[in-house]
Amino acid sequence: MKPLQTPAGTVHVLERPEAYVALSAMINDACAGGPAAIALSGGSTPLDYYAWAVRNHAIHPRTRDYAHWHVSDERCVPLASEDSNFGNAARALLDPLGVLPSKRHPWPQVTDPELAAERYAAEMEARPRGIAYDLCLLGLGDDSHTASLWPGCPLIGANGGKAFAHTEWPGRGHRLTITETGLARCGKIVVLAFGAKKAPALKAVLQGSSNAKKHPAQVLRQLQGKTLWLVDEAAAAELATNA
After folding, report:
1. Domain spans, the chain
2. Which of the four, 41, 169, 171, 237, has the lowest number of CB atoms within 10 Å?
C-alpha cells in the first residue's frame, strides 16, 4: 500500500520488522548531525521493538553516543518498577547498548507529581532551539489515548502552554506526560500501532469526526506535517484508502 495521507499525518502500512527498520533509521538519522533528544514510549510494542533493536544491532554506535534518551510519558513509580516506562526502556534497550548515565533523562523521582513535572519542564526548557524532543515515539491505546492524554483528560485543549504536565488518570493513577504544546515543539513524531485491536481507534483518530476529548490522539491533527504512523495491515484494516 502506498503511504496514506490523513488529517493526523502520513500512514505507512508495513510488516512489523519493516516498521522497526524504519523506526531505527529515523532514530539514527536524528543523531547523524550530533546530539539529539529521543523520547521513547511505554507499552508492549515498544518493548518488543527494544528487544528487536538489540538483537539486530539496529541502533548505530554514533546514536548510542549522541542520543539523550527520554520517555514521552511516565507513571509515578520508581524506575525499578515494571510499570516504569523509562525503567523498562533502560532494562530492555539502554542497558544492553551501554548508554551512559549522563545520556539518560528519566522524569524526576520525587513524590510530588506536580513538582516532578515542573522540574522536568525546566530541564527541557534549557534545550537549544526550543525543541522538546528531536524525535518523539508514541503509541496508540485501544481507547485512542496517546502518551498519558486519556479520554476526557483536562489537559486536552487547555494545558496553559505547558510542554509537560501532571495528570491523574481515573483508575490508573498519577501520570507525567508531554502535552499538545510539547508535541508541537517536537521535531518529528512517530506513532506505532499494531494488531486488529487497534483498528477502531486508528480509524477514529485518523479519519473519524473531530473530537479530541473522546479520541485524544486526534491532537496530532494539528501536527500533520511532522507526524508519521507505522502500522500493520491488521491495525489499518478499517481505514478508507481513498480518504
Report:
1. 4-210
2. 171
CA angle 39, 4, 226 (to 5 degrees): 35
Give the tens place of pLDDT for each residue, 216-233: 999 999 999 999 999 999
Nearest to 227 by CA among 196, 184, 194: 184
- 3 state DSSP class of 198: helix
Set of cell numbers at residue 96: 544492553
DSSP assigned state of 242? T
For residues 19, 21, 23 and 25, what is the CA-based torsion angle, rounded to 10 degrees? -150
| pLDDT tens per residue across span 66-85 | 999 999 999 999 999 999 99
**β-strand partners of 39:** 70, 136
53 pLDDT exceeds 60?
yes
In sequence order, what DSSP letters do the residues of 135-196 get, joined into one string? Answer: EEEEE--TTS-BTTB-TT-TTTT-STT-SEEEEEETTTEEEEEE-HHHHHT-SEEEEEE-SG
> What is the fold, at CATH topology level, of the domain defined by 4-210?
Rossmann fold (3.40.50)
Tell me the β-bridge partners of 139: 192
By the 8 A CB rule, do 146 and 216 touch?
A: yes
What are φ and ψ of residue 50, in 5° steps? -60, -45
State the pTM of this model. 0.95
Instruction: Encode pLDDT of 181-215 as tens digits.
Output: 999 999 999 999 999 999 999 999 999 999 999 99
